[in-house]
Design goal:
alpha+beta, 7-stranded mixed sheet, disordered N terminus
Length: 477
């Protein structure tokens, strides 16, 4: 009888698009914010043989070193730069104790499809593709009073919001002008952040940030007066960090944490659906981007989505599996093993895996990457051709590869693992896992990027000490 009641409750929630947590409480049912997010897609047609973009891959590999290396040792040891921004006690008192959800039953099942267009506010994500590989996702926000619209890379691997200022000579796209906002406050603190795609410098400010019609007051962010060249090839204006505020360089709360503090959200989680590129999809607009080496075309396909304070059952085809975060800094969860063709190999030590929507590929310590490729028939170390950390495998293979969280293997789609043909041998393709130098990278840290997340609808929950959930994505239907 309980199973029937549970099934009815889940179906009712999905049909009405009420966050399922509320179907297990006595709280009044209210709709929450779903913000569509789009994946930036840069389509790059090369004239050389092969279609693997080695330039981008090398740049991102080096950028990942830069993004994580400074703070990784301290964070892995549990030392946070800004512990005053830890929201755990607030979430426990204001959400968990009041709602009292049964976490073993929440969102055990999802049903669909359901039309969300009339009942949910969505923030679309734009998909950017280089050589048919999804590279980055961004969405729209408005900052100031009146609001100034800008686009932002959605990044669970960092914790700061930053925007370019009118005084930024290296910022080639839209900017935010605090002098035009009646709610702008100059905070006066220096601001600098290194990301996977470059470094920015500026000062801090606060203002109103509007997300799909929901206003967040007094949000602290960086106003940038200098950004590195890495950012100039991408169409987004700034970055929206969605990691824990304990690692925010601004020393302020993240936008999501401020929304929780101000009572804008009914559930302390956000969910991300990353669309897999479809060249035959409708072309909403085309944007030519500057580049010395490539011609880029930017397709906007509003099929990716970010859901603030909620979970959209139309983006998943099965139940959520939950995993507690290792540290309330990055959205990092323990990985115990990997599988190739169903054959499981256990790691000698647990690997802490940072789930990072702002990184395209997957990065492992060199010894782990070598072990993974050793299980893929025909794979080869391609360091001599492409640089340290690169591997190839036979293009004819459909690699059945999965990462083991808990005791469950979560598989990468073979098309996402395949990054394209090698320039040197069209029978060999580049693998989507890159090795990180043992002298410069922690032996127990991996970065799990969009290559994996396109196969899994991911949920990031502040309750229960922080946890990440994966549900099968509709991308794989």
């Amino acid at each position: 009888m309980m199973e029937v009641a549970l099934a009815f409750s889940v179906i009712f929630c999905a049909a009405t698009l009420i966050p399922l947590v509320h179907c297990y409480s006595n709280e009044p049912r209210e709709y929450t914010n779903i913000i569509p997010i789009s994946r930036r897609s840069l389509l790059n047609r090369r004239t050389l043989a092969g279609d693997f973009d080695a330039v981008f891959a090398r740049e991102e590999q080096q950028a990942v070193y830069q993004k994580y290396w400074t703070m990784a040792p301290e964070i892995l040891a549990g030392i946070f730069p800004a512990p005053e921004n830890d929201m755990e006690k607030f979430v426990q008192s204001k959400y968990v104790n009041e709602v009292s959800p049964d976490t073993d039953n929440i969102m055990e099942q999802v049903v669909g499809p359901v039309d969300v267009s009339n009942v949910l506010l969505t923030m679309s994500m734009t998909d950017v593709i280089v050589n048919e590989v999804d590279m980055l996702y961004y969405g729209d926000l408005a900052i100031g009073t009146p609001g100034q619209g800008l686009t932002f890379d959605i990044d669970t691997g960092s914790a700061d919001l930053w925007v370019p200022s009118p005084w930024c000579s290296t910022c080639t796209k839209n900017h935010y002008d605090g002098s035009q906002s009646s709610t702008y406050v100059d905070k006066g603190r220096r601001f600098a952040v290194s990301y996977g795609s470059g470094t920015v410098y500026g000062t801090t400010a606060s203002d109103t940030v509007a997300i799909a019609g929901t206003a967040v007051q007094n949000q602290t962010f960086g106003v940038v007066y200098r950004e590195s060249e890495d950012f100039q090839e991408y169409p987004n204006d700034g970055i929206l960090g969605m990691a824990f505020g304990t690692i925010a360089q601004s020393r302020g709360l993240t936008v999501f944490e401020t929304m929780m503090k101000q009572g804008k959200l009914k559930w302390p989680c956000f969910s991300v659906h990353l669309a897999r590129s479809q060249e035959t999809g409708s072309e909403a607009s085309v944007l030519e981007l500057p580049s010395e080496s490539y011609k880029h075309r930017h397709w906007i396909n509003n099929v990716g989505q970010m859901c603030w304070g909620c979970y959209d059952p139309t983006k998943a085809t099965g139940p959520i599996s939950w995993f507690p975060v290792s540290h309330r800094a990055y959205w990092s969860i323990p990985m115990s093993a990997f599988e190739v063709a169903g054959q499981r190999t256990m790691f000698d030590e647990v690997i802490i895996s940072a789930i990072d929507t702002g990184t395209t590929f997957c990065y492992f310590p060199a010894s782990i990457a070598a072990e993974i490729y050793s299980q893929i028939p025909g794979s080869k170390d391609a360091s001599e051709s492409y640089g340290s950390g690169f591997y190839t495998y036979p293009c004819a293979s459909k690699v059945d590869l999965g990462f083991v969280f808990g005791d469950v293997a979560f598989r990468l789609h073979p098309d996402d693992f395949n990054l394209g043909e090698s320039v040197y041998n069209p029978a060999e393709c580049m693998g989507g896992i890159f090795a990180m130098d043992a002298t410069e990278w922690p032996s127990n840290l991996a970065i799990i990027g969009d290559e994996f997340l396109k196969s899994w609808y991911s949920v990031y929950d502040y309750s229960d000490g922080g946890r990440v959930g994966f549900a099968p994505s509709v991308n794989n239907q």
